[in-house]
């Protein structure tokens, strides 16, 4: 039957008194609405009247027709409302654009409604996290008046409407805790639903959608919607349903993970990689942790991830005890690996709590009377009696050595010592090119040596160049002594012995220059970086007893590095006492150290003291140290730091605004947060102070280091700014975010900046290129050879500026860091933030103001090793297979040192006329020889044709052989190159070898005695 051509006649039935005719009209219109909707649009009021008439029997049909007409009119909110009112007549499974659009709209509406309900309590919680700093916005929602308050959290503000940056971005809007959709008049925006019946209908539609997905086993779709809607109850229900379905159909879980475990892994990955709001992420992780603990054989590594993020030391301790008590080798191996992961990702404070809650490593024989209580747990091991106690005590001792970091530090030290490939010829060239009497050049060579030999314990360069070392004076001497701490980083057992000649002495005897003593305390902290257990007491004594400001400066830096993240109130109070003496020389280091001690704690009392003193003091160095220190205290706090950020950014003092930008960088590091990026970009182009603009652009690197590919596009225009500070900031942002990636887009932006007219921009470009090219060889990135050549050329160029030479020297040290066995790692292998690495990089960027801070970059160097251990935590000798060509990930070739040639005879000059005469003579001689050969051949006519042919063959053969010999001589090098290129794919590597991050996917373990 053909459809309607015109709806005029059918529409007339709508005015009839008979309900049957009205129903017939609606059914007819519903069937052909796509054709006649333009005519039906004029009768909307009539159809709406039918829908509102409670006596009309087909109100749902009227609602469906209205929904379709409004859909064609692109009034999607009204269309969705009437589609919900249509009840079961709206078919979810019907294929069509109308159905798909309305379902999509329903899901968006559900997400907006559900997340709005969840957001309110979260905001109040985050506001209460900083009671002393939250002032005007501490109570209630952000209304119009709060938006103009000078201390409003920037997550709740909007930028001036004239700025392009103020346009509301809906990218990842659902993940932004305070995102509120713009209530525009157009029908496409999401409008609030006030009608209870419509809300109930929306809930029913969404439940029907969920049920359809769950029946088909499409659990991930429901998980995604639940996370976006911030509805944890739905998330719990989906995972439970997947677990129940798995139990019903046992075939699904016969191989590997079941649907429930896969779903939890998926939810965990979403939570860690996508969800930006810290409070909501914590809620999801707690839910996942509860669900994981309900599984009989849970994924302990997933639990460890949750535990680290939640800082739940009790849960971590319980898990380790549970694994160790199980007693089998596999469980103990898992416990060891989890302990390594906890050390890589946890703070000293967190790890200290776990260690304190574990039994000591001494054999425990006292609780024999409680054997009956413990019997069910240990019944499998009961026959071994006292042997079991010894075995368990050994395991606990090993666990404690892993958690306190001593095992990891020892293994890394062994790896760097064994595989050291430092090229001393490069160091010697840098030393010879830079005049040692000039302090900036002496310092540059010191840093180059420190970075190249970081952690290798190889201080040969210093020992071989004592005369050059003796040229160091004052702060150059401080820096050179501190470099020993970088070189011997992790050498815990020998640290005191190595630095003994330089450390301050208590007996009153002089131990040399105060700069050497201060540098030695700084070095002592660097050796014990993020592992202060054995060093803090000594450093506290030296710091409190020091009277010279230089020694206090070094002691404060050493205390901060060794006590990083301990949250020690005692050390903080000692530092504050020295700060209040108002000395500019040590105040900067003390302010920084206060932040390092309270790293990531968000301690309100500490922040109050620091910001109050920053406003009172007149010393810019102290204000800067405190500003960086406050940023460190807010490390990883995300929206919890918004209050302080906005307060600092509105401060008239540019140094405190600088600190506000650093707080944004560290609070939101690695999150890729849109609101943080918008804020930084706005300040980068609007602040009146060059330092603030520079650090705003640079901070983009910290926010986006997990998405390095997006940074070149973002800073492309900024790298061509008229302002050299903005250009420098964009160069450093590329280096920080793309470190170790060899990213071509970043290199393409940095190469022109090496020729920038401003010296410090060239410096930043060279340093950033080294960061990006670290551990790259010519096979991985062909540009690396040219960049290395440029760095050496800049260092040796007499006409180059000192700043640029300094940058090139640092770059040569960075590109070969740790004996060519380290990369710059701002995140751990498990994907969490590398706290020490990020802090090291952040403080390193302050070398702009104070060169000794450059040593902090060594904290960001991560050894790229693969280390297999046995059950006794010893390093067994075994090999693993790498399925690539050896040259692909090989070390870069060492620099060729040309042997000095003796004096040679001066070549005799040859005039052009003489050369022409010689050529003419040779030509004449060849012509005569040809004539004589013709005469000889014609004088022997008796020779047969065959002989002539043979002669010619032999002659041509000889000729070919001669030519071949010449060709062979010239082509020989090319042949050898071809032979090198034809490498065998796949080779064996020893345990404790260098494996760069890109190489890991090619590594496999052959079947044998040892299994990973």
UniProtKB/TrEMBL annotation:
Function (record text): Acts as a regulatory subunit of the 26S proteasome which is involved in the ATP-dependent degradation of ubiquitinated proteins.
Similarity remark: Belongs to the proteasome subunit S1 family.
Species annotation: Colletotrichum higginsianum (strain IMI 349063) (Crucifer anthracnose fungus)
Pfam families, A to Z: HEAT_2, PC_rep, RPN2_C, RPN2_N
Region (Disordered): 361-387, 912-990
Basic and acidic residues compositional bias, start-end: 924-933, 943-987
Residue intervals of the 26S proteasome regulatory subunit RPN2 C-terminal domain: 864-1012
GO biological process: proteasome assembly; proteasome-mediated ubiquitin-dependent protein catabolic process; regulation of protein catabolic process
Record keywords: Proteasome, Repeat
Protein name as catalogued: 26S proteasome regulatory subunit RPN2
InterPro entries according to UniProt: 26S_Psome_Rpn2, ARM-like, ARM-type_fold, Proteasome/cyclosome_rpt, PSMD1_RPN2_N, RPN2_C
One cellular component term from this protein's GO annotations in UniProt: proteasome storage granule
SUPFAM superfamilies: ARM repeat
